[in-house]
Design goal:
The chain contains three helices and eleven strands, in the order ββαββββαβαββββ. The chain is an alpha+beta fold. The structure holds zinc ion. This is Mov34/MPN/PAD-1 family protein.
Length: 157
C-alpha cells in the first residue's frame, strides 16, 4: 500500500497493492507510447481518504502517441456498473503514463483535469490524476482538483 498526502486539504490518497502491481506492470511493459485509463475506488465516509483499488485497462478505442493520449470509452461503462454493483466502487479519476519522463502533470493534463471536474457526465468534481513516469525507476505523481485548483500530493514514504 502506498499513501500520498495533501496537507492543505487534509486528504490522504491510498493506492492498494493490487493497483500498485498494475502500475508496475504498466511501467515494466511500456513500449514508449502513452497509454492510460481510469481510476476506480472509493472515498471513506468522512471523505478524508480516497482509496484507489484498480486501474482500468486502456480502452480499445483510445488513441495514443509518444507524448499524447486520448482515452477512449469502450468497455468503461460496463466495468463501472459492475464495480458499483459488486463493490460500491466508482470512478475516481484518470491515469496515464509519461514514458521515460517526469510524472508531473503537463499543462494539457491540468486543463483536462479541470474540464473533467466541470463535466457533469463524469459526476466527479474532484478528479484524481495518477501519472506513471520515470526512467529506469518507477515514479508516480498524484494530483487532484479541488474548487478549481490543482494540488499535487506528497508521498508519505
Ligand atoms: Zn500527461
Amino acid at each position: 500500500m502506498m499513501q500520498y498526502v495533501c496537507d492543505e486539504l487534509e486528504l490522504l490518497v491510498e493506492i492498494e497493492n493490487k493497483a500498485i502491481k498494475q502500475i508496475q506492470a504498466v511501467f515494466d511493459t511500456s513500449v514508449g507510447i502513452e497509454t492510460g485509463g481510469i481510476l476506480i475506488g472509493y472515498y471513506t465516509v468522512k471523505r478524508d481518504k480516497a482509496v484507489i483499488t484498480e486501474l482500468s485497462e486502456t480502452p480499445s478505442d483510445s488513441k495514443c502517441g509518444v507524448n499524447w493520449f486520448h482515452r477512449g470509452i469502450e468497455g468503461l461503462k460496463k466495468l463501472l456498473v459492475e464495480r458499483w454493483k459488486t463493490r460500491d466502487e466508482y470512478y475516481l479519476g484518470e491515469w496515464h503514463i509519461h514514458p521515460f519522463s517526469s510524472p508531473m502533470p503537463s499543462g494539457i493534463d491540468r486543463m483536462q483535469m479541470i474540464s473533467i471536474s466541470k463535466d457533469k457526465r463524469f459526476n466527479c468534481t474532484e478528479p484524481i490524476m495518477l501519472i506513471i513516469g520515470g526512467g529506469k525507476q518507477l515514479e508516480i505523481s498524484i494530483s487532484l482538483v479541488f474548487r478549481g485548483g490543482i494540488y499535487t500530493l506528497e508521498s508519505c514514504d
